[in-house]
Amino acid sequence: MGMHFQKILVVGAIVIGFLSTLVLLVGTLLKDSIPNVLTPQERQYAFDYVIVGAGTGGSTLTSLLAKHSNGTVLLIEAGGQFGLLSRIPLLTTFQQKGINDWSFLSVPQHYSSRGLIDRRQCLPRGKGLGGSANLNYMLHFEGYGADFDSWRDLHNLSDWSWAHMRSFMAAAKPKPAEMFEVPRGYSKLSEALDEAQAEFAHKDWVFRRSRYNIKNGLRHSVLQQFLNPVLHSSNLRLLPEALVKRIQLSPDRLPRATSILVGTKDEDNKEQEFSVEVRKELILCAGAYQTPQLLLASGIGERSILDKLGIPLQHHLPSVGQNLHDHFNLPLFVSMGATGATINQRTLLNPMTLINFLSSGTGPLGNFGVLGNVASHGGSSPFGITFFGAGAIDEASLMSISNFKGAAFRALFPRYYNASQEGFVVISSCLQPRSRGSVGLLNRHMRRNPLIDPNYLSREEDVACTIAAIRSAVKLVTSAAFASLHPRIHWPKLQECSNFGPFERDFSEQLPSDHYLECLLRHIGLGSHHPGGTCALGSVVDTQLRLQGVSNVRIVDASVLPRPVSGNPNSVVVAIALRAASWILKSELQAGPASDLK
Ligand SMILES: Cc1cc2nc3c(=O)[nH]c(=O)nc-3n(C[C@H](O)[C@H](O)[C@H](O)COP(=O)(O)OP(=O)(O)OC[C@H]3O[C@@H](n4cnc5c(N)ncnc54)[C@H](O)[C@@H]3O)c2cc1C
């Protein structure tokens, strides 16, 4: 390459770098204003439906109620609007640890996370209109019918099965123009995956090319799909930047929620509190960590736990905050000897990357880089393998969002310093982990983070299941279909695992011992950000998602999932919210006319 051309490249890189920084900055700052905001003068008002949390569940439900209900609806959200940055798919991780992320950390993990600072996992959660659907990686999952049948069979939920949910899952699916599916021939990695499908046809493996909630190169979350179109509805008011702190129940034998206490910050950052009366229903959509937090802080939960915290009991309801589940991943870096369009600094600084994105929403910036996944749903330990087409990982940003210790990060990504490295990350996980954790409180102040203990890998079966996933991932990567990529799996050399491997033969035979793989998993495994189960169907809520023993509180978010979804959970939460809306609207029809918005 001539000197002159090199100079052009360097100048080009500086210009593109400058432009990207500008886009990041403007993207963070530029925000639409929110219409229909409840003004302080209106704060004495009561609402028929009060919805707490504008995330996946809350945005979807609000949309249906705003459109079809005769009642008045108030949507309360702790955060404000996300910046434009949230719309650019590849840059989504830059939002983590920012103002639209609750940035929770788990409590120190006993069975895992040994390579993480203080053994604590980062647990990002979206804060603002769209919630975690605006912070997530946008992967759309069509659902797996047997999951819902297992709710019916294993949890005695006769109203829940694939037959009940199929139409709601179909309605949760965005229109084709609102989705991006990784096309055939997108990159060498996606081609290899397509070829592997034929090579492994004898297995029960399901190959899926990634589908994203992306329209014209921009995130198209529940915010665009459901909430934005109804924001101007006359029966809807919004209360952003407001934290719901307490639920007040009536003292009846069958109590009902009468009001909630809301906290906002004034210009001097002083807390202002006021109540909102609930006329018909209170619907909690604050997510798998914060819905149980709000219930417990309100004195709704297990009596002995509340006693210990000194929180007056309003309603004894065991299991609030229990049964926390999440997927748990082992990432492995695979370098490629061939050049292909993997994400690295070279592809990002290529002027065509920005030009393609700005002109047509295509190229690396227009999706998150996960090109596809392979799942085995059969057997007692179903697993999934995800292919993330990133060759060079930025140390500072990944360490900040993963909490890795430096040594663990460098063992996992030994080529991290080579910004033009070609490669990909293969992520193995168990689709139905058995480990269960909990959400608890340090005290009842809602501005304090809840105590979140995912308790990853507390069940041995999860280790065995993930090891089976890793071994299948190795089969895929070393198959004939991948040969043209000249892949090399980088078995991490962790000092703490050195008694078990990796040994020379592990690199040549690709058959490291179970002990070594378990050691890796317990050191560098990471949570998937798919928490659920903390107000599970059948224990905390009844089959119509109503809080057990309380007449007018419903929960509509990931906390109701009795067991993990065998894939990405966002679409399942949307489908659950659509179903909840149908029940609410039906009972409204049965009950007759409602009040007008004052
Ligand atoms: C980084 C990341 C990547 C992910 N990737 C994917 C993916 O690719 N595909 C997929 O299907 N799923 C993915 N998920 C998971 C998916 O986004 C969640 O399962 C889903 O969004 C959960 O929806 P929810 O309604 O339960 O909660 P959320 O969407 O989290 O909504 C809860 C809302 O309630 C608000 N809130 C909380 N407490 C209060 C309070 N006291 N008062 C007022 N408001 C409150 C919050 O600010 C938030 O807006 C990912 C999640 C994360 C964090």
Automatic annotation (TrEMBL):
SUPFAM superfamilies: FAD-linked reductases, C-terminal domain, FAD/NAD(P)-binding domain. Residues 287-301 form the Glucose-methanol-choline oxidoreductase N-terminal domain. Gene3D superfamilies: FAD/NAD(P)-binding domain, Glucose Oxidase, domain 3. It comes from the Eukaryota. FAD binds at residue 244. Coiled coil: none annotated. Its cofactor is FAD. Signal peptide: none annotated. Keywords: FAD, Flavoprotein. Belongs to the GMC oxidoreductase family. This is Neither inactivation nor afterpotential protein G. It comes from Drosophila kikkawai (Fruit fly). The lineage of its organism: Eukaryota, Metazoa, Ecdysozoa, Arthropoda, Hexapoda. The gene is ninaG.
